[in-house]
């Protein structure tokens, strides 16, 4: 619902945004499905749904995921896929279909079992499942990109990275649990718009977090709230749970793309000086931050068919924001103008300036393992394919231009794309 208070000290209460025209919790519904009733009716509906969900949880009834209602063929295929969950070509879209939209819950239950976390932390399976369901349901399925399938994809990638020999031999059960939890919850309750949008529309979250890592802070605080509400870690000493909450925050906040250079400079310094000591908890935590950052933006490093789907989804989300900004007569944000910002140009820029520098350093850290080499190879091939598609777009534009000349905006785009 619009009002939500979770936990005690340090957990924010959520209220509706202050911008008078936009109901952010229904961002995609209102823009795509037309009028769906008055805000009052919608608010009452959502509040009821949240109350009903919470009341079932508080009574200890585990919501039944549809996975268990699927026929044996689907279950068998899902189980077979889980046996290959450490493979880089894991198809999370297929897995989500086989689990009837429960990829995140199913994946987390499996990985917590595989890594021995349930036994090590003496976790109650009913409570654990309840918590995973809460996390999955707090993602917005209407978002083309920032939804529970993205969270599952990042979690599967994180699992692969946690198995890299350079890191795996030093990881403690706490490290592994933190890595998986942070991956699963790093975008929880994402509204489908970016931080600048929240700031310029004076959304209450922007004010609450003083325009600094607004979404990441919200993802973290929401996660802490669900952890406390579920009482998953209630049996652990208070100082242990407080440490887990703080480290989760440190990991999730590291996914803020505005801090990319900060982390890259620090990683480069460690690698150049060869002073990473993974026996040290601080250095291990830093590398977990880097691993999560890699997992979060690993789409360009996947096989083309998967990578292309993610690229189209993230750009669709950008374009929806642009449409919303246009509707409310706001300046259209960078990358969000469907008329000017093409998918190939967005992806080439993203790969060149964000993805490549990070994954080249990650490969340096891992010692160019087969996984790192595989990811970099996919990255190079995918970038070449986007360049080819961009070239075709420009050729098509030129042929359609009656003067036979490249327009000024096209020429600028071409020049930008040729910039190293």
From TrEMBL:
Which PROSITE patterns does the protein's record reference? Answer: PDEASE_I_1, PDEASE_I_2
* Pfam families noted in UniProt: PDEase_I
Recorded protein name is Phosphodiesterase
Q: How is the cofactor bound?
A: Binds 2 divalent metal cations per subunit. Site 1 may preferentially bind zinc ions, while site 2 has a preference for magnesium and/or manganese ions.
> Binding of Zn(2+) 2: at which residues?
187
Could you read off the lineage of the organism from its UniProt record?
Eukaryota, Metazoa, Chordata, Craniata, Vertebrata
Alphabetical UniProt keywords: cAMP, Hydrolase, Metal-binding
Species name: Grantiella picta
Identify the EC number(s): 3.1.4.-
Q: Where does AMP bind?
A: 146-150, 187, 296, 347
Q: What class of enzyme is it?
A: hydrolase
Pathway recorded for this protein: Purine metabolism; 3',5'-cyclic AMP degradation; AMP from 3',5'-cyclic AMP: step 1/1
């Amino acid at each position: 619902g619009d009002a939500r208070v979770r936990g005690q000290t340090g957990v924010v209460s959520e209220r509706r945004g202050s911008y008078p025209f936009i109901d952010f919790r229904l961002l995609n519904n209102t823009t795509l499905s037309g009028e769906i009733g008055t805000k009052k009716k919608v608010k009452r509906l959502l509040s009821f749904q949240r109350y009903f969900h919470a009341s079932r949880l508080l009574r200890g009834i585990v919501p039944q995921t549809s996975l268990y209602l699927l026929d044996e063929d689907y279950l068998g295929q899902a189980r077979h896929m889980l046996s290959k969950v450490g493979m880089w070509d894991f198809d999370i879209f297929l897995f989500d279909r086989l689990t009837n939209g429960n990829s995140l819950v199913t994946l987390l239950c499996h990985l917590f079992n595989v890594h021995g976390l349930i036994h090590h932390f003496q976790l109650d399976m009913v409570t654990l499942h309840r918590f995973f369901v809460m996390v999955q349901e707090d993602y917005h399925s209407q978002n083309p990109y920032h939804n529970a399938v993205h969270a599952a994809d990042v979690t599967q990638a994180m699992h692969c990275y946690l198995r890299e020999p350079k890191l795996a031999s030093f990881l403690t059960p706490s490290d592994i649990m933190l890595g998986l939890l942070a991956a699963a919850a790093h975008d929880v309750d994402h509204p489908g718009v970016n931080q600048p949008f929240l700031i310029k529309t004076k959304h209450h979250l922007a004010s609450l977090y003083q325009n600094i890592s607004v979404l990441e802070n919200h993802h973290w605080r929401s996660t802490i709230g669900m952890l406390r509400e579920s009482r998953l870690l209630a049996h652990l000493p208070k100082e242990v749970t407080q440490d887990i909450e703080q480290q989760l925050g440190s990991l999730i906040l590291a996914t803020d793309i505005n801090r990319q250079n900060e982390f890259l400079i620090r990683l480069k310094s460690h690698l150049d000086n060869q002073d990473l000591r993974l026996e040290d908890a601080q250095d291990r935590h830093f590398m977990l931050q880097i691993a999560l950052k890699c997992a979060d933006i690993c789409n360009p490093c996947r096989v083309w068919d998967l990578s292309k789907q993610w690229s189209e989804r993230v750009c669709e989300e950008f374009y929806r924001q642009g449409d919303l900004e246009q509707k409310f007569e706001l300046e259209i944000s960078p990358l969000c103008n469907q008329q000017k910002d093409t998918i190939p140009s967005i992806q080439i820029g993203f790969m060149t300036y964000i993805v490549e520098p990070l994954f080249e350093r990650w490969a340096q850290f891992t010692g160019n393992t087969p996984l790192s080499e595989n990811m970099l190879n996919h990255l190079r091939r995918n970038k070449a394919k986007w360049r080819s598609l961009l070239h075709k777009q420009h050729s098509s534009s030129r042929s359609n231009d009656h003067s036979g000349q490249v327009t000024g905006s096209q020429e600028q785009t071409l020049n930008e794309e040729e910039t190293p």
